[in-house]
Amino acid sequence: MILEPHQIELIGYAAAFLTTFAFVPQAIVSWRTRDLSGVSLGMYSLFTFGVGLWLIYGLIIEKWPLILANAITFALALSILVLKLRYPRK
């Protein structure tokens, strides 16, 4: 099966949407409760840095699915990381 470029782009947007919005429930719970005891500081630090690098990569290669998904995911992950640093224990 050979896909057309626009079909490949749609797969990218679908993947971006699903993986990005998977963070929304965690972010909402974190913002509301300020309870981040189950969140690993090391994991979120590495994850946030990695997403930031994916964002930079997307900008360099000018691929909108990567740019949009990683910009949103970076903002969500960074907000959770900031909350974790601000409220280390509840």
Which CATH top level class fits?
Mainly Alpha
Strand residues, percent: under 5%
Give the CATH architecture: Up-down Bundle
Low-confidence stretches: none
Terminus-to-terminus distance? 53 Å
> What's the tally of helices?
4
- Helicity level: over 70%
Largest beta-sheet characterization: none
Mean pLDDT: 89
> What structural category characterises the helix and strand content?
mainly alpha
Count of domain modules: 1
The helix-strand sequence is HHHH
What general outline do the C-alpha atoms trace? elongated
The total of beta strands comes to 0
> Could you name the CATH topology?
Monooxygenase
How would you characterize this protein structure?
The chain has 90 residues and is an all-alpha fold. The chain has a single domain, classed as Monooxygenase (Up-down Bundle). The protein has four helices and no strands. Helix 1 (5-21) packs parallel to helix 4 (64-86).
Write a compact overview of the structure shown.
By secondary structure, the protein is an all-alpha fold. The protein has four helices and no strands.
List the helices and strands and how they pair.
Layout: H1 5-21, H2 24-33, H3 41-61, H4 64-86
Helix pairs in contact: 1-4, 2-4, 3-4
Describe the structure using short key phrases.
mainly alpha, elongated, 0% strand, 90 residues
